[in-house]
Every structure is written in C-alpha cells, then in structure tokens.
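The instructor's notes for this session suggest beginning with a concrete chain rather than abstract definitions. Hand out the sequence below and ask the class to guess, before any prediction is shown, which regions might be ordered.
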Amino acid sequence: MLLEPTSDQEFFRLNTDKFLADRMPISEVRRLRYDPAGFESSYWTQGANLGWTSLLVDEDRGGGSISGQGLIDLTLVAYEFGHHAAPGPLLDTNVVAAALATAGGEAHGEVLARILSGESVVAWCFAEPPPRHGLGDVGLRIERAGGGLVIQGTKRPVSSAEQASHFLVTGMGGEGEDAGMTQVLVPARAAGVSLEPLHSVDLTRRFWEVTFQDVRLPATALVGEPGQAGEQVERQLQLAVVILSAESVGAMQAAFDMTVEWSFDRYSFGRPLASYQALKHRFANMKAWLETGHAIADRAALAVGDGEPAAAEMASAAKAFIGQYGTDLVQDCVQMHGGIGLTYDHDLHLFLRRVTLDRTLFGTPTDHQLRLADIAERDRATA
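After discussion, reveal the predicted structure:
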C-alpha cells in the first residue's frame, strides 16, 4: 500500500476500510461460507457507489478516479479487500469495465453503465483447463459464421459466473486477419452456455467452469477488432496481476499484525513469545517479505498504470515474489500461533486461504518467473 497517499486517497481508503468493517466483519465472512454467491447484491451496489467499479474508466464514459491514477486508487481498495478477507468480484468487474471503456465502443455502453452502477456483475473468461492451463495459453475459438460469430471452447476457473450478466471471453480467431486473439462480450444466458461449479479454498469466492458449445452471436458482440486483441488482453492481464498483488499484500499485513499481537499477549515459561530470539529472527524475515511485498506491488501498479515499457516485467516480478513469499509469510504466522493457528475457529486461516488462492490466479509464481525469463531473453535479442 502507498507509503505517502494523498489526503483524498487516504480518505478513500479509510471509507473502504470502514465500510468493510461494518458490512463485512469476520463473523459475516464466515456466514457467507454458506451463501451461494458469496456476497449480497446490496453490498456490491453500495461498494459501487463508493467508487469501487469506476476507477479504471474515464469520466466521459461514466467513471472517474480519486487521484487521476485510477489503478493506484484501485489498489487501495484491493488492499482493503485482502486486509478484511472481503468477498466480491472486484478484479473481474474492473478489468472488464476497463476493456469495454477502451475497446467496447458504443455497442456495449449499456452493459458498461450497469457495471459502473453495481447493477450488473461481469466475469472475464480467460484461463482454460488442462492441457491449456499455462499462462496465456488460449484454445477457445471465436470464428466468423455468415454475418455473426460462433464460440467453441471451455474456460476455467471463472469467478462469480453464476451471478454474471455477461462474460468477456478471450479466444483465438479463425484464419487470415482474424487468426489472432479475439474478445467478445457474451450474455451469460445465451444459448449454448453452460456452467459447472468448482470448489475453492477461499470461503467467500465462487468459481465455475464455463463451456461455450456452438454459441452464436452477432458481430456487435466483438470487443475490439477480430484477431487484434493481443495488446488489450496483455493489458487486462497486467491489471489483474496488479489487483491480485495488492489484495495479497493486504492479507499478508492482516496476518502479520495478528501474529505480532499474539506474540506479545501469549506467555510461555513466564515470558512473552515475542521475547524469544528464534522467533525474533522469523519475525524479521516476515517483516522483510511484507515490506518488499508492499514496495513491489506499488511499483508494479505505477508501471502498469503509466504504461511503462517495463510494465509486464514489473507486474510479473510482483506476482512471482508475492505469490511465493505471501504464502510463506502466512504459513509462518500459522506456525507461530501454535495449535490454535491450525484450527478452523481461528481467523488466521481466512487470510491463508486468500493468499493461497491469489497465488494461483492469472499465473503461478513459476508461470511469471518463466514470463520474466522470456522478457529477459527477448530484451537480450533486441539489444
């Protein structure tokens, strides 16, 4: 999280913090374990009214940011989501809204307006099941048929698919100029769309496998030009990684603060746990991981927000580091709590679940390490 936010940004963050503390205390997070959606529509609409859904959209399209740097502002919300283990389709809604605002044109203006108001939930269908589960490996087909389009393929996992009114689907085009990456906006209830629920380690998140079997749409469903969506998809991936990184850092901070407080309150052999040298060394390691996580998440957000040439590199560096050391940190917190840290009744596992899931979405640490290697090799070849 920003070390020196502006007064407006700090006010915005504090409003989000207060709202989540009131509407989404840990007791409510636990209750939502049994909710089919994982969140209530009124909660999401109120969040949209606070500005959660509009930060990546220009004012002339109905959006607006706090500081003029919408992605930086959005990371403040994502941080608080992680810090409270809060539910809601924050990532997908903002990524899809940004895509529709920049490449959707007027054809999707009504859907964009409903996203910004919180009336509609949308989902990005990007990842695919094995054997195409590597980062960026897309096999779903979007091809022309007459004057329209036909979609064939499967996406997994897709967040909040059952609550979504539309899916932004990323696939590969047909032949010639259409052969590249293509995106379409698909009504969730279109003929040929089927959903299969998946299990998730995060109690408040719901995922589905979405299959598109001979789904036919008019050409107006396109988001951008057919075969020309490569840069847009890369941008969406970078946005998703930045949001996840900020959220994971929020969960890391909550787990660390909880463990520090525990170590001073808990006594062993007449001394607080925090006084033992071996634990001090572990706290020092965790603090180093945490502060590095803050720094690299903020740097990635700045690079992606400003469209720097190193944006892809910084985003992958953040995801690789936080994905690895975020889970290490929270696992250490669990161990330092002793037996109680392993119980379901303790709140610590909620943050462990959040960073564990965030680690796997939109590329694992290994995926992003390989991506960094590819970037380095490409830079060396063009030097």
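Then share the key points. The chain has three domains: 7-119, 123-221, 230-382. The longest strand covers residues 148-159.
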